[in-house]
Write a structure and sequence with these properties.
Rossmann fold; 7-stranded mixed sheet; OB fold (Dihydrolipoamide Acetyltransferase, E2P); globular
């Protein structure tokens, strides 16, 4: 018998049973699902429902009656107001167990197939792991004091963050310098509602390998002001750890952080990172994993799997970015073909390949669909295709291309369990078998989870 939502009280006491794929605690009243923010499985809480619909409700905690045994004291004083580390109040080992359950539930509910989900490989670092920082910038209404930080959950209310333990400490000092010095150069913070103010974001790429940092000032403008030039010079000269300062122009009313035009003003326009004994160059707009230690775990996992199953395979590296996968897999391959449609990324990849002395990679600056059409026309085939698409996953058309071009294995790396499950369902319906999924914790203390799926073609 279906529960009548009118019978669900506005306030009630519930026990949290599990965690949703978005990090909300799940409780049930007579089978009716209630999502409760900021809770851990095992919590007994008094809740107030904020929104109801036919199949579920959202609620907030009015009182924590009995805390779960897995609750811990968050190490960040801004945890409750910042919203970036949703799970920091949960023991880390238990976070990993919950993330595995999220992947299992997602595969079962969307994919509808029994797939081996391995235990989550933890992040080697659970503090100072985030090596790409994107801070929105604003200012106070009256004093015009510059604010930099993250938005409160489900709002565009900026929390001024002066210390963030999940990023390198140097990033805090760089941001504080910009806060203090921007007004000196008549640089205002951005007011989103009216699309006014000059400085929209500060983006920092920080190297685990060298300790150096590339800082990008994102301006709400189609030109670089003298103040921005002076701030860039002052910032570069004040920090030995800053290897370069760039400006990105983004005058559009958009949620995208970076615009199309980036100009290097001081120093280098890249940082260097070391993964799999290879040196990578990472620019302001380069796609690269924000947690290099976990990224290296993923690359080594894929490399070890290929080495154990193949001798000198030909590998297609699709959605390649700066060809990180291709470069890391080159040692175990006869040939790697890396394809990426962003020209700046392929230009960087060419430099990386040349400087690392790699001879068996071919790089293509081309839209994936155009490349697929060319390869099918040429009747080309690959032993293995590595897919590492954006969060939205692949289209069925893309998957059809990959099925035509691949002889034996698809290795699909995804940051979104839901779109991965959807795409695996399609591949299974096309005759493929998913051998296993290996989750990796790329973002400790959040609900996000990276996965590498091994897929066999029949």
């Amino acid at each position: 018998m279906k529960t009548n939502i009118k019978d669900i009280p506005q306030e009630s006491t519930v026990k949290i049973e599990k965690l949703s794929n978005l990090g909300y605690g799940i409780a049930k009243i007579d089978g009716y699902v209630i999502f409760v923010e900021g809770t851990c499985p095992g919590d007994v809480v008094k809740i107030t429902i904020t929104k109801k619909n036919k199949s579920f409700a959202n609620a907030v905690v009015k009182e924590l009656i009995t805390p779960s045994q897995y609750r811990v004291q968050p190490f960040c004083p801004m945890h409750k107001v910042c919203g970036s580390c949703q799970l920091q109040f949960i023991d880390y080992d238990y976070q990993l167990k919950l993330k595995k359950e999220i992947v299992e539930d997602t595969m079962r509910n969307i994919c509808g197939a029994e797939i081996e989900i391995k235990d989550v490989i933890p992040s080697p670092d659970i503090k100072a792991y985030r090596h790409k920082i994107q801070y929105p910038i604003s200012e106070t209404k009256d004093s015009k004091r510059i604010l930099a930080g993250y938005y409160k959950p489900s709002t565009h209310e900026l929390v001024n963050i002066k210390y963030c333990p999940i990023q390198p400490e140097i990033c805090d000092r760089i941001i504080e310098f910009i806060r203090n010095c921007a007004p000196k150069y008549n640089i205002s913070g951005y007011y989103e509602k009216k699309h006014l103010g000059e400085l929209r974001h500060v983006v920092i790429r920080s190297s685990r390998f060298t300790g150096k940092n590339l800082v990008t000032l994102v301006l709400n403008s189609d030109r670089i002001s003298d103040g921005a030039k002076e701030l860039a010079r002052d910032l570069y000269n004040s920090f030995d750890e800053v290897t370069g300062v760039s400006v990105n122009l983004n005058p559009s009313k958009t949620n995208l952080i970076l615009g199309d035009k980036t100009f290097n003003l001081e120093g280098e326009d890249y940082i260097e990172e070391k993964l799999c004994n290879k040196i990578f160059k990472i620019g302001a707009k380069t796609f690269f994993q924000v947690n290099p230690s976990s990224a290296e775990n993923i690359f080594n996992y894929v490399k070890d799997y290929i080495s154990s199953k193949f001798s000198s395979p030909v590998i297609l590296d699709a959605y390649a970015g700066i060809a990180a996968f291709g470069i890391c897999l080159a040692d175990t391959a006869k040939k790697v073909i890396s394809v990426e449609e962003v020209k700046e990324s392929i230009d960087l990849a060419k430099r990386i390949v040349e400087e690392n002395g790699i001879k068996n990679i071919e790089l293509y600056d081309m839209k994936m669909e155009t490349f697929f059409d060319k390869e099918i026309e040429n009747k080309t085939s690959y032993d293995i295709t590595v897919l590492d698409p954006p969060r939205k996953g692949c289209t069925e058309k893309t998957l059809d291309y990959v099925l035509k071009l691949t002889k034996e294995k698809i290795i699909y790396v995804s940051c979104n369990p839901a779109t991965l499950a959807r795409d695996l369902k399609y591949l299974i319906s096309s005759g493929c078998k998913v051998e296993s999924i290996q989750p990796f914790d790329m973002f400790p203390h959040t609900y996000h989870i990276e996965n590498a799926a091994i897929i066999s073609l029949k």
